[in-house]
Amino acid sequence: MLMFAWVAEMVLVTYRDFKSSRTVLGLPPPSDYLATFLVFGTLAGISQAKAEGAEEFASLFAWSLVVASLLNVFDPSNPLSGGGLTSAPPLTGTPSSSTPAVIPDLTRSQAPNFTGPIPS
User: Fold this and answer.
1) H/E/C letters for each residue in 66-90?
2) Which parts of the chain sit beneath pLDDT 70?
């Protein structure tokens, strides 16, 4: 089951690369395939664990990644991008000058003295 999920993910990645014209010399970038190999290879290692239900967990998680990739939520070539998820809009504008920042002014006489013995 895990192998079918990996093949489905590779088909989606290839289709997405050709659709967006993101190719190198007419082929999708190898980094996309390396990313799927690392993610699904890790899941294959988990599925070989002696724990009960490890294979089912790995297969379910792999297929959830395929569905997320299909819905454009997960992009294995850029896992930190967030895909189709929306985030909060960036903060715009400048801080108000009516509320100045409070910066303590420590002169030498007010600074703590760390030259003495360490209390126990």
Assistant:
1) HHHHHCCCCCCCCCCCCCCCCCCCC
2) 74-120
